[in-house]
Amino acid sequence: MEKIGVIGCGTMGHSIALSAAWAGYDVIMQGVDSADIDRGLASMHGKLQVLIQNGLIAEVESQRIQSSVQTTTSIVEVVEDRTFIIEAIPENIELKKRIFKQLDSLCEVDVILASNTSALSPTEIASETNHPERTVITHFWHPAHLIPLVEVVRGEQTNDHTVERALKLMVEMNKKPIEVKKEAPGFVGNRLQFALLREAQHILEEGIASKEDIDAAVVYSIGRRLPVTGPILSADMGGLDVYTDISNYLYNHLSTATQSTPSMAKLVNKGKFGNKTGEGYYKWDASFSEEVNSAREKELIRYLKQDMGLN
After folding, report:
1. Distance between CA atoms of 218 and 106, rounded to whole angstroms?
2. Cα gap 25→23, rounded to integer Å
3. What distance in Å separates the CA atoms of residue 231 and residue 129, rounded to the nearest whole number?
4. Residue 172's pLDDT is what?
5. Is the alpha carbon torsion for 83, 3, 5, 168 positive or negative?
6. Which of 43, 107, 163, 260 could be a cystine partner for 111, CB 3.0 to 4.6 Å?
7. What's the pLDDT tens digit per position in 256-305?
8. For residues 109 and 311, what is the distance between their CA atoms, to the nearest angstrom?
9. CA distance linking residue 38 with residue 162, whole number of Å
10. Whole-angstrom Cα distance, residue 66 to residue 45?
């Protein structure tokens, strides 16, 4: 069994630590200071309470999970006796390169160094290390304790042993890992997600439909179907002859934009970032934010209970 260290206890770090502890691992989680750690532990406790309320765990299991996560503010301590390090710090390539250079000097050569980056190059992250073959991406999706997918991405020098250990650990953490065989910007999930977002922005920009109807078109159609059949399997089911004909006609009319649309750029320039600022495309007052976030969490928990055979 791997001994896991998590660097970072913010949005992703504490949720990854929770996932590992839930799967039976003892975890050491590092934060920048005591206040950072306190916030991470408080967020973890809140998530555990939701899991209890939804029948995913009992109170005694929550206590075990919390006791399985030790904390420190020291990089040296978080890697001591660890065999698998997962970095979950902000998406800044220079910061990640410095951290991985430090980790490379602190850890024995058989320790796996994994980054939770959602888009940055594993080759570049490992570029200042002496052992780039043991660096890999393990991209957990937010919220990490509820979303099964983890993208395991190899860099140019990542060896097979590193990938195999990462995939094995993710399975043991009850995740659904995929192997990204060749690094590419956005990996797999974000390339698909942002292709959909680009077309949604284009439809809105062209005045074809309202933002509410664009969202509804996804929620009540492909959103219902894709949990069972992904896009390629859906094409097989529908008939590749039909999908080829539609593709040949429709692709000429789809967005080929290389940047975000003017309407989104205008909102950003006005400081309207969405939920975090109270307004974006939608108005995010406290009640609307609670409603949307709770509904999404409830649906993710429903699927997780199904995966666990609890429904």
Report:
1. 47
2. 6
3. 38
4. 98
5. positive
6. 107
7. 999 999 999 999 999 999 999 999 999 999 999 999 999 999 999 999 99
8. 44
9. 32
10. 8
